[in-house]
Amino acid sequence: xxxxxxxxxxxxxxxxxxxxxxxxxxxxxxxxxxxxxxxxxxxxxxxxxxxxxxxxxxxxxxxxxxxxxxxxxxxxxxxxxxxxxxxxxxxxxxxxxxxxxxxxxxxxxxxxxxxxxxxxxxxxxxxxxxxxxxxxxxxxxxxxxxxxxxxxxxxxxxxxxxxxxxxxxxxxxxxxxxxxxxxxxxxxxxxxxxxxxxxxxxxxxxxxxxxxxxxxxxxxxxxxxxxxxxxxxxxxxxxxxxxxxxxxxxxxxxxxxxxxxxxxxxxxxxxxxxxxxxxxxxxxxxxxxxxxxxxxxxxxxxxxxxxxxxxxxxxxxxxxxxxxxxxxxxxxxxxxxxxxxxxxxxxxxxxxxxxxxxxxx
Length: 361
Description:
Layout: E1 5-9, H1 14-25, E2 29-36, H2 47-62, E3 66-70, H3 72-88, H4 95-114, E4 119-121, E5 127-131, E6 134-138, H5 156-159, E7 162-163, H6 171-180, H7 202-206, E8 215-218, E9 224-228, E10 255-261, E11 266-271, E12 279-285, E13 289-290, E14 299-305, E15 313-320, E16 322-332, E17 339-344, E18 347-357
Parallel strand pairs: 1-2, 1-4, 2-3, 4-7, 8-11
Antiparallel strand pairs: 5-6, 8-9, 10-11, 12-16, 12-18, 13-18, 14-15, 14-17, 15-16, 17-18
């Protein structure tokens, strides 16, 4: 592979750093690319600058060039606006999925090809295999770190030019490699929070763009049991942040959100972690993005995962103008706006955004 060029998305973290090292070791001509995808506010701690410094140090040690590209306008227009729009509708979006589709496998992908890449690479825990001339997405060896859930809206075309160097190793091995290389980032914490926005309090962050109104919290008897700070902030299955104290003649059980009405600015709560109102037996999706073309079907048996790290369950997908997904066992805490991702064993088929649950409760 010594005549092949691969551009690696360098985030300043341990996964992308070790990915770059492994590719160079395999004989690729490696180029690093750092993406700036968020414009920080004045006076705000800029994690992007810290990450770029870390990425620069790693590239210097590995003796590979590092490019820097600003995709913040793309991120704002194609990811963040939709993220805000979904919240305003009272849904629970996952911006990391959009970020992969629109930024890492479009803006980054196109930029890399322009600077001479034969392939792109990222530090995702996922695997691409070529099957009859078609690139297919599989789970990584490290199932606990597997990130195919976040990659399901990317197409086979992009995957055909993608390498995931960490597909067959465990996270613990990645840190060991970084330590052996004396990379300062070997113990750096994994990034969490909104993609490229960082570890911010979601309510405080969203309040910069959306105005919240206080409203009533109602129980299953339609009694007002508290006041919330804005119905769009809450999601199905949520317990924290409700502020409901002891209520006369009610059991001393925790309260959970089981529904909400955005137009009335109300949220609805029930008691008990196993309350039936928190469970869903079927969902509907307007559309599904298939990574590879599937033959037309009326029924499809597969597995579904409705959150990252959620245990996949058996399901049947029925197609009739839209998609109805029936679970083999009820799932707790399903919320419209989340993504349902489908698998056949370890093969990721694709997925879509949940429109409604339990026939729109």
